[in-house]
Amino acid sequence: MRRPFIAGNWKMHKTNQEAVEMAEELVELVKGVSEVDIAICTPATALAPLAEVLADTNVALGAENMHWEAEGAYTGEISPVMLKDIGCEYVIIGHSERREYFNESNEDVNKKVKSALNYELKPIICVGESLTQREADRTKEVVQEQVMAALEGVAVDDLTAVTIAYEPLWAIGTGQSATAEEANQVIKYIRELLTEKFGEVAEQLQIQYGGSVKPHNISEFMATSDIDGALVGSASLEAESFAEIVKFE
Ligand code: PGA
After folding, report:
1. How far is it, in rounded angstroms, from Cα 185 to Cα 232?
2. Alpha helices of the chain — where are they, by DSSP H?
3. Are the beta carbons of 237 and 13 closer than 8 angstroms?
4. Which of 7, 74, 214, 237 is the most exposed place for a label (fewest CB within 10 A)?
5. Is 225:190 a contact under the CB 8 Å cutoff?
6. What is the pLDDT of residue 157?
7. Per-chain mean pLDDT for the chain
8. Domain assignment of residue 207, given as a range
């Protein structure tokens, strides 16, 4: 059985004081939850103080992006070595906002995924189609291309450290989520692709749905056959709503 995995993506929100206050509140609220993997992925500025707050708790720390090089002349970038050193366990890679506003290509995503694994960070790889692609019936094709490119050259043994987040672009931040069954179909397809490429180990992979996941709809997603959790944006910004999602029934 796969364990559910609920991760928050704070995006560009919160000063360090706000971050620490919320994390402290969250830790209290989800104390004792042992059957769900929990992580918050936060702005780089908040990682160091949060590493202290989350130490020895059941909430793991993640970054929202990284460069693939360990170090070098890349002004403004942050390396996997730095993230590992600070205490990150996870890193989101290839979020649609990075693909759209910062021109991240499938090839960049692949370099980052391999580098993250190399430095023992667990990548949460985001894939998903735009509304235009969906309307042109190209969802599967787009998702296949993104998943296969992201995992090109990744060893079978490393696959269990990977999480995939299926996030249809039209559902992100819009309040309009995919239906649980629509999302489940795509996620099932992703698992089939991975089984073809990597074999049985794909059965163990946690695949999340993301896009307007809220306390009121999490249970529908979690009741499906193939959705193992959620990558949560706006509803992860408040401790109470995020904790409610973590404690879905
Ligand atoms: P949302 O964002 O929950 O605000 O739709 C999800 C995401 O972008 O990961």
Report:
1. 20
2. 16-30, 44-54, 80-86, 96-101, 106-118, 131-135, 139-150, 180-198, 218-222, 239-246
3. yes
4. 74
5. no
6. 96
7. 97
8. 5-246
* CATH number of the domain bearing residue 199: 3.20.20.70
Q: Tell me: the pLDDT tens digits for 11-48?
A: 999 999 999 999 999 999 999 999 999 999 999 999 99
Could you tell me the pTM of the whole model? 0.97
pLDDT tens digits, one per residue of 223-241: 999 999 999 999 999 999 9
Pocket test of ligand 1: the residue of 167, 208, 218 to mutate, having most ligand atoms within 8 Å of its CB, is 167
- Is residue 67 flagged as an active site residue? no
Q: Mean pLDDT over residues 135-142, rounded?
A: 96
212 within ligand 1 shell (Cβ under 6 A): yes
Asked about 216 being catalytic, the answer comes back as: no
Buried b (16+ CB within 10 A) or exposed e, 116-136: bbebebbbbbbbbbbeebbee
Burial 61-79 (b: 16+ CB within 10 A, else e): bbbbbbbbeeeeeeeeebb
- Of ligand 1's listed atoms, the one at least distance from the Cα of 212 is 5
